[in-house]
Write a structure and sequence with these properties.
This protein has one domain. Helix content is 48%, strand content 27%. The protein has two helices and two strands. A two-stranded antiparallel sheet has the order 1-2. A hairpin with a 2-residue loop joins strand 1 and strand 2. It is flat.
């Protein structure tokens, strides 16, 4: 029987998101969600040289877009 792949921890995903943003070498932000197990989900966010007001505006747009497409 195969060994199940370990579920990534929030800290691991957070670190990878931060590394990704630094590698892009541009200001940006990520809100990332993933399925941990059958009924569990994880969410992390990461900001890199992004003004708070711009990140809030972007997250607001993304949330509105997600809700509009989901309903």
């Amino acid at each position: 029987m195969p060994t199940p792949t370990p579920t990534p921890e929030n800290a691991d995903i957070q670190r990878k998101c931060e590394e990704f943003l630094r590698a892009l070498q541009i200001p940006g932000f990520i809100v990332f969600g993933w399925q941990k197990s059958d009924q569990q989900f994880g969410v992390v966010s990461s900001f890199h040289e992004m003004p708070v007001n711009a990140a809030v505006k972007g997250m607001t747009w993304a949330l509105n877009d997600f809700v509009a497409k989901s309903l």
